[in-house]
Here is the input.
Amino acid sequence: MTDDLLDLAVTAARAAGALLRERFHAPRTGIDTKSSATDMVSDADRAAEALIKEGIHSERPDDTILGEETGEAHGSSGLRWVIDPLDGTTNFLYGIPHWAVSIACEDGDGAFVGVVFDALRDELFAAKRGQGATLNGVPIVVSDAEDLSRALVGTGFSYASEERATAAALLPTILPRVRDIRRHGAASLDLAWVACGRLDAFYESGLAPWDCAAGRLLVIETGGRVAVMPALGSSGEGLMVATPGVFEGVRDLIDRALGEAPGESHRARLAR
Here is the structure.
């Protein structure tokens, strides 16, 4: 059954990716905001999610589906699909070619299949629990980095202004002690890039399930380690992931940054 569900996720992701490629080169329509004035959604997000849901429901009518744009439609099968139809909407709307479709299927133990599809690069990351992960069918693993000072670290920022300020306050502690920081604007791709070794670590608070369900599985299945990133505000917790050689160093560094940042952030720590 796992193979069939992964095939369904791949088919749905590719269909949505094809739709989004067409929309990327067309005028933007139906633009609105969600959690804040900078958190945008468009007709492209809505159309991609509708296409994914239609494809899944046609094959799996009894499954639950949680989509970023339409919420949760409950089913009776015990399986739940978690969908981000367009991760990186801001990039998409600004014409920045860095966004993805993210789809995971979960059982009672979490995600057991996951797909992140970078439609513009035609890169499809796929994982099955306990069976590894691939990029366009070729097995991938995390990097072999061991020196924290040479680790390339990805991050992201909340759309809530007070949380953005706290996240920014972590950077003076973190940035001088790693190779560099990257902020690409699509958490699913950041996680996929840790999984294939393009990044050595990634951290971000305030991630929703659809942001990271597939990407988290990719990291685990390629040998990476995962911890909960503390909430920096009402947006909630997130993830910190890294290759094993720098995981403890990155975690300690973030803990140190949380302790040195002003305000309430010193109360939060990464789980041990």
